[in-house]
Amino acid sequence: MEAPIQPPALDGGMPQAVAGLKRELARRGIDLAYRADGASAVAFLLSRIPAGATVMNGGSTTLEQIGFLEALANGPYDWLRPGIAAIADPDERIRVRRRAGTADYFVGGINAVTEAGEILNADGGGNRVAAYAYGAGKLFLVAGVNKIVPDIAAAFERLRNVAAVEECRHLGASTPCALTGRCDNAACRGADRQCGKVLIIENERIAGRICVVMIGEELGY
Ligand code: SF4
């Protein structure tokens, strides 16, 4: 008879894998807050962003799924993204988007995070990863537990053969991964490429600048 499947062990209410990640991130100067579901993650984020703050977000299916963008729209914030999207002139839109990368608060997703705490994100244009690296004042990186992978090799596998595939298909991009479901890096050039800039966050010098908000659900891609 097969042994019954055991639920993941918990460490103070937090799955052990997340507790281990929290310890590794702390060594890298990065905080981690765990919330069991999307609603409590949204409540946590709203409790950490002061009324009147300038807020920008990076494109993220996870943020849409947990209802954070709706909460931002209805909250007492200076949320920059809707105004940027409404700018008709492409050059002006780029200029304003570049400035928005230095918002006091920036909230975005994660493509993959290793058990050792390396955080990977890919971008087509780069505005999101530029804000992640240094531009944003306070950075919240929101992810479901499905984004935790064993190591860097698995992180790139996830980034290229899961996240980029879905993103390219979502955007209707004509990239090899969108067509076949697998990355062909050598064949992929041009404006449609959605992983032209890849950021690995290994460490943060500014205390309290980055907080990973890990949610105990499978979210995003
Ligand atoms: S390099 Fe091209 S084919 Fe590979 S994941 Fe990125 S967008 Fe897709």
Account of the protein in words:
The protein is an alpha/beta fold. The chain has one domain (13-215): NagB/RpiA/CoA transferase-like (Rossmann fold, 3-Layer(aba) Sandwich), CATH 3.40.50.10420. The chain has nine helices and twelve strands. It has a six-stranded parallel β-sheet, with helices on both faces. A four-stranded mixed β-sheet has the order 10-7-8-11, sandwiched between helices. Residues 160, 164, 168, 175-177, 183-185, 188, 193-195 line the site of iron/sulfur cluster (SF4). Iron/sulfur cluster (SF4) binds at residues 160, 164, 168, 175-177, 183-185, 188, 193-195.
Tell me the series of helices and strands, N- to C-terminal: EEHEHEHHEHHEEEHEEHHEE
Spatial ordering of strands, largest sheet: 3-12-9-6-4-5
Instruction: Tell me roughly what share of residues is in helical segments.
Output: 25-40%
Strand content: 15-25%
Specify the structural class.
alpha/beta
Number of helical stretches of at least 4 residues = 9
What small molecules accompany the polymer chains? iron/sulfur cluster
Mean pLDDT: 94
Termini separation: 35 Å
Shape: globular
